[in-house]
Design goal:
There is one protein chain. With 397 residues, the chain is mainly α. The protein has one domain (13-50, 100-392). It has helices spanning 13-20, 23-31, 40-43, 52-60, 67-80, 90-100, 108-120, 122-137, 145-149, 152-155, 157-171, 182-204, 210-213, 219-239, 246-262, 274-285, 293-303, 305-308, 315-332, 335-340, 351-366, 369-392. GO terms for molecular function: oxidoreductase activity.
Length: 397
């Protein structure tokens, strides 16, 4: 954490265009943020900060036995908890005592409101995650380096999307983050996967450029990722014609603040509201260069996922789904970003997103909030089941 950084891209055109005329400008208007570099030195050291507690557990548990045995052991700790009397490695005690301590700021009513907005927004939630949060994140070249180092492209976009969906759905249901609940378990497992990946990268990937890329899966990059799940997600829902109450909005930030806490992100990096989130995000983007060739490969892998995915039986259905995702990507992201990522040009690309906006406004008036939450939960669970059936119960790669 001792390295001193400068906002190295603050004069670059990609940074200026995003914040002066693109989605960044919209985020400032949406949030009322007052962006500046006044707090840069407070945040930049986290580019070289990692989750040491998680890394120690990986070193002491995962690297001393077979992977499936270590995973079973960790699952036992998650589902049964740890006490002072338990004879377990010290690193495990340290980690789980932190996880089991419920922070004073946690508000279960806000967690509920955040979960309800995620469910109520139905498939728009999944479109937002995929066509704005995920693919938009590929424009930040350094952020993607751990994916390249761990050879995520070889695993394929269907598998990556399935894992992201599995995590997101399971942490955004009712009571999902209660101790020993499924979302709580997913958050802890994800934290240790990050630590495992980080230690593996440091050990095996000799080309890792710490000076420029930061530590692999560092705390500042983690903050930006979870701002994607909150601020960027909300902005996308708004763009697609969804409305949300002040309590739902606050709930989204609260939900992801607690998920971030469970994942080991330092609390001072976890925003409470859209104003803070935008101001934090502004600082982080100043150290990220625009898309590189790896970004383009990741983006096209995600775009072509619709063609590879056998959930839809016929080829024409898959091609149409890819077309619809491309339309949403152009609608949700800046044109400049889409061109950098080489998103294909398609005809009538505004037709589907504009139709969604009209539909959402009508649907909002005709259908009760309770019914929309129930229907959204049902539809999202069906999409998740379809993905899991493909990636877990077959030889699909």
């Amino acid at each position: 954490m001792e390295r001193i950084m400068i906002p190295r891209f603050k004069e670059a055109s990609h940074f200026k265009n995003f914040w002066e005329s693109g989605n960044g400008k919209q985020l400032i208007e949406f949030s009322g943020a007052e962006v500046s570099f006044n707090n840069f030195e407070q945040f930049c050291p986290f580019f070289y900060h990692i989750d040491e507690a998680g890394d120690e557990v990986v070193k002491e548990v995962y690297f001393t036995r077979k992977f499936h045995e270590a995973s079973r052991e960790i699952e036992h700790y998650i589902r049964n908890g740890i006490s002072e009397k338990d004879e377990v490695p010290e690193s495990v005690k340290k980690l789980f005592f932190q996880l089991q301590k419920v922070p004073d700021w946690l508000d279960h009513n806000l967690l509920k409101s955040g979960a309800e907005l995620c469910m109520r927004s139905n498939l728009d939630s999944l479109i937002s995650l995929r066509d704005y949060c995920l693919i938009g994140g590929y424009d930040y070249a350094y952020l993607n380096k751990p994916l390249i180092a761990t050879e995520a492209l070889k695993k394929g976009a269907v598998k990556r999307l399935s894992e992201t969906l599995d995590f997101w759905v399971n942490v955004t249901r009712y009571n999902a983050l209660d101790r020993h609940a499924k979302g709580y378990e997913f958050a802890i497992k994800t934290r240790l996967i990050h630590s495992y990946a980080r230690r593996s990268i440091k050990k095996h990937y000799k080309e890792w450029d710490t000076e420029n890329w930061g530590e692999p899966i560092n705390s500042w990059d983690m903050m930006a990722t979870y701002i994607g799940f909150s601020l960027v997600f909300l902005h996308s829902l708004k763009k697609l014609g969804n409305t949300f109450s002040p309590e739902e909005e606050q709930g989204i930030f609260h939900l992801w603040k607690y998920v971030g806490y469970l994942l080991g992100i330092p609390e001072q990096l976890l925003p409470d509201n859209k104003k803070q989130a935008t101001e934090y995000f502004y600082l982080w983007t100043s150290i990220q260069p625009p898309s590189d060739k790896d970004s383009v490969l990741l983006a096209h892998s995600l775009l072509n996922e619709s063609l590879e995915n056998p959930i839809l039986k016929f080829e024409f259905q898959r091609k149409n789904l890819r077309y619809l995702h491309i339309c949403c990507t152009w609608f949700l992201l800046d044109d400049e970003v889409c061109k950098r990522l080489h998103i294909p040009e398609v005809p009538n690309r505004k037709l589907f997103p504009v139709s969604k906006i009209i539909f959402n406004k009508i649907y909002d008036k005709l259908v009760s909030r309770k019914t929309r939450i129930q229907r959204g939960n049902k539809d999202q669970m069906k999409v998740l089941r379809d993905y899991l059936n493909i990636t877990k119960n077959s030889n699909f790669h």
